[in-house]
Design a protein that fits this description.
The protein is mostly helical. About 80% of the residues lie in helices and about 0% in strands. The protein has six helices and no strands. Helix 4 packs antiparallel against helix 5. The longest helix has about 35 residues.
């Protein structure tokens, strides 16, 4: 008989696979550059072990009938999936338009997704954040953040 296991076990196995891939990619780096990724992978593996341990305990409790099974359903995944799609859109928009335009659009869409209703607050937070990042990184630290991604290349080609 196949015993139903708790979803935390699947999550832990997924994290182990992710860490294995990260480890394989990290050992190819020079020794100094690989130290930080390997440290993060080690920490992630420790946390995955905790998730696996907890999943095994939950599986035993459900098998004994001492706990109710709180399985993941599609309705539970709706908010994380929408969040993932918004972040994926930000990533694509970042490559297309550059940091500032993509971040402004992302912040507005994400705050609306998190059900912040007041447009005044949304615009104030977005404008304040953009101004602080611009003042600190572009003006004070001279970090070149003002590229416009693929749009910059398209405008350059149109000028030719």
């Amino acid at each position: 008989m196949i015993k139903k296991v708790h979803q935390d076990i699947y999550i832990a196995v997924g994290i182990f696979i992710f860490c294995t891939a990260g480890f394989i990619l990290s050992i190819k780096l020079p020794s100094g550059a690989s130290a930080f990724p390997l440290m993060l992978i080690f920490i992630l593996l420790l946390l995955a072990c905790l998730i696996l341990w907890d999943g095994v305990k939950k599986t035993k409790l459900v098998a004994e009938g001492n706990s109710n099974d709180n399985s993941i359903t599609i309705s539970n995944l709706k908010v994380p999936l929408i969040t993932f799609l918004i972040i994926s859109g930000y990533f694509a928009l970042f490559a297309l338009t550059g940091y500032f335009i993509a971040t402004i659009i992302f912040m507005i869409v994400f705050m609306r997704n998190l059900r912040l209703k007041s447009w005044r607050k949304i615009l104030l937070i977005t404008a304040s954040f953009s101004f602080i990042i611009y003042a600190m990184f572009v003006k004070q630290l001279n970090v070149p953040v003002l590229n416009f991604g693929y749009l910059e290349h398209a405008f350059y080609l149109l000028q030719q």
